[in-house]
Amino acid sequence: MKIGILTSGGDCPGLNAVIRGIVLKGTTTYELEFVGIRDGWRGVVDGDFFPLTRHEVKGLSKVGGTILGTSRTNPYEGPRGGAENVAKTLAKHGIDGIVAIGGEGTLAAADRLSNDGIPVLGVPKTIDNDLRATDYSFGFDTAVNIATDAMDRLRTTGDSHQRCMIAEVMGRHVGWIALHAGMAAGAHVICIPEVPMSIEEICDLVTRASDRGRAPLVVVSEGFKLKGMDQAFSDKGLDAFNRPRLGGISEILAPEIEKRTGIETRSTVLGHIQRGGSPSAFDRVLATRLGLHAADALVDGSWGQMVALRGTDIVRVPFAEALGELNTVPLQRYEEAAALFG
């Protein structure tokens, strides 16, 4: 059996560890043949493949990014897109199925292709941790560690100048990165999409921290909405799946906080540094385990499903389950952190 592997959507630490796990177990245990698909779904529609053997994956578990390249291409768009054309391209190259490693957009495309008869197996990837079918996704732990380190650095410069520092993190429409990194860094306010706050509430917490002699640290998720906002702030257009590119809410909050509190305030958008660098030990292990179990699922013909973490076990779930509701932060978890605010 000949299998193509692709990584699609935003890159994150751990992608290479998944690729390594699939290829090593697939070749040594099951004698499968693998090809790499360049740049996500673009490589599928363009037929851009290359051999993927043990040699290509050696030493990859600690390497960030993805050796396959990635993009946000929609496989149903363009003159070579669509399930019928994809099936012809795969047949031309003797490829029996695809392992798609990606997040919500990638798996939505994989589900659509699977329903149209293309054999696809999924592996969840998102630093946002927003896929409900898996308890954690690789990349999340590394992103939290990077964000926490950045916030620790912001706190030292904030303390030096007695400034209010705002750190904006990724997460799209869920607040897991903000919650975990904010708690780890000892933030005085954490703003997440699941719990809208007013500017008055934020300023009150900032003032309380300042009155205690602290330099306030505000952590805000890119998808956070102030009370009264209909949707998350976005001025960067849409991606290939017609989803708004979020980011910049901290730059809206900073001048308002400074104006209302009189405390000099600076904002920092951490952005893509959260995606870069080597994966944490946790993410290396999780990504490798997902890759190993993906190889088992290929042999079992578990198309239309994805491997996922449940507790400490790796299980298989249908795409439909993976693409249901987002894995949002429960109110109870936010209230735990809120006890530390101000």
Task: Report a brief summary of the structure.
By secondary structure, the protein is of the alpha/beta class. The protein has 12 helices and 11 strands.
Radius of gyration: 21 Å
Into which percent range does the helicity of residues fall? 25-40%
Categorize the overall geometry: elongated
Tally of helical runs:
12
Major sheet strand order? 3-2-1-4-5
Task: Break the fold down into its secondary structure elements and pairings.
Blueprint lengths: L1 E6 L7 H14 L4 E5 L3 H6 L2 E3 L2 H4 L25 H10 L4 E6 L1 H12 L4 E5 L15 H22 L2 E6 L6 H10 L3 E3 L7 H13 L5 E5 L27 H13 L3 E5 L11 H20 L4 E6 L2 E6 H4 L8 H8 L4
Parallel strand pairs: 1-2, 1-4, 4-5, 6-8, 6-9, 7-8
Antiparallel strand pairs: 2-3, 10-11
Supply the key terms.
four-stranded parallel β-sheet, 342 residues, 12 helices, alpha/beta, Rossmann fold, cytoplasm, fructose-6-phosphate binding, metal-binding, five-stranded mixed β-sheet, ATP binding
Question: Would you give an account of this structure?
Answer:
- There is one protein chain.
- The protein folds into two domains: about 180 residues, Rossmann fold (3-Layer(aba) Sandwich), CATH 3.40.50.450; about 140 residues, 3-Layer(aba) Sandwich (Rossmann fold), CATH 3.40.50.460.
- It is elongated.
- Helix content is about 40%, strand content about 15%.
- The chain is built from twelve helices and eleven strands.
- The strands form three sheets. It has a five-stranded mixed β-sheet with strand order 3-2-1-4-5, sandwiched between helices. A four-stranded parallel β-sheet has the order 7-8-6-9, with helices on both faces.
- With about 350 residues, the chain is an alpha/beta fold.
- α8 crosses α9.
- Pathway: Carbohydrate degradation; glycolysis; D-glyceraldehyde 3-phosphate and glycerone phosphate from D-glucose: step 3/4.
